[in-house]
Amino acid sequence: MSRSTDPEQEALDRRFMAAALRLSRRNLGRTSTNPSVGTIIVRDDGAGPMIVGTGVTAIGGRPHAETEALAEAGELARGATAYVTLEPCAHHGRTPPCAEALAVAGIRRVVGAASDPDPRVSGKGYAILREAGVEVTERVLAADASDQLAGYLMRSLRKRPEVTLKMALSSDGKIGARGEGQVPITGEVARREVHLMRAEADAILIGIGTALEDDPELTVRLPGLENRSPARIVLDSDIRLPPHARLVSGIGRVPLYVAANLEADVQKRLELERRGVRFIGTEVHDGRIALPELLDDLAALGMSSIIVEGGAAVARSFLDEGLVDRIMLFHGPGEVGAQGIDAPIGTDRIPPGFRKLREMRFDQDGFAEWVRTV
Ligand code: AOF
Ligand code: ZN
């Protein structure tokens, strides 16, 4: 029986690939425009498999995961198997291609998950390995890898970031109450999960309504992850953001982008710019920012994944234009009441073309996630 049809080997391959995927999560949101890749090098000298090297794409995108794992393995890489969550690169960057480095180090077998759409790499990474006599097994846990690399894949293939719509709904289907600032809907465990999601994204986006109403910070406030806050983006066509907003005072630590009609209020824009706000000029039609063009601009700034966090009007615009790729809904047990703002979406009101990926609980709150299938 050949290795690739050996069920024991297949189970082992899935186990180590799952470990490589967990490892690569460590730098999600910190390697843009590069994807965060994981590599695990495993050898078996007869006493069972042993991990001899691990690597994850470094902050900023270089060195690549394979470089780090090979450095750790040293001579032990000879004859070993490398598990890589993305096809190893085939192009010369600051270092030789990873595919070449794996072969030169004497890796005997490479197990890959996702293929790389980058035209410099696509198919060529695996080809280099095979030509060098390395056995290659592709597409192990490919769906999981593609899900984790969704932002990178979206930016490479569609030249825009992956858009996640995140909302918290009360039991009566509200997302907040007008004129009451931030209304607690979910509990502490769900809050922590949201902060972890933020840490893995490149940016969080809200509308000016939410910025004025809630005066949020939109940062990651989890012990040990305080420096993992992604950029913040406010849709504010008329430049209504007050200079004393908490979003502005946090600029020293985390960038703030305002998407606006640059001529709407030049004085105000200059004042905000003096405080470090970065403006993105956008087309405005009927008072609404042209979202596809904005997403192009965000991709050009290097962003691969953004989370849309509010409010209802912004969520509806992204949904109406078919620009939502992933939906994450939290459900709190309490009611907001008649003065509440209706959610534009609900568990029983998911637009067509989405598939439920997972469902779970965070303490007293429910959670479900859907991804676009087309
Ligand atoms: C790998 N291992 O860990 C990552 C890869 O700008 P460069 O030279 O760093 O190349 C960026 C490309 O490298 C990126 O588009 C993707 O194709 C690949 N990313 N490849 O072998 C890694 N992060
Ligand atoms: Zn590489």
3D architecture notes:
By secondary structure, the chain is α/β, with parallel strands linked by helices. The chain folds into 2 domains: 6-148, Cytidine Deaminase, domain 2, CATH 3.40.140.10; 160-372, Dihydrofolate Reductase, subunit A. 29% of the residues lie in helices and 26% in strands. It has helices spanning 7-25, 65-73, 98-104, 124-131, 142-148, 150-158, 188-199, 208-214, 246-249, 266-274, 291-300, 312-320; strands at 38-44, 49-56, 81-86, 109-114, 135-137, 162-169, 174-177, 203-207, 231-235, 256-260, 278-281, 284-285, 288-289, 305-310, 326-331, 340-342, 354-362, 365-372. The strands form 4 sheets. It has a 9-stranded mixed sheet with strand order 11-10-9-8-14-6-15-18-17, sandwiched between helices. A 5-stranded mixed sheet has the order 2-1-3-4-5, sandwiched between helices. Strands 7-16 form a two-stranded antiparallel sheet. It starts with 6 loop residues before the first helix and ends with a strand. The model has no long low-confidence stretch (mean pLDDT 95). It binds ligand AOF and zinc ion (ZN). The site of zinc ion has 5 residues, from loops.
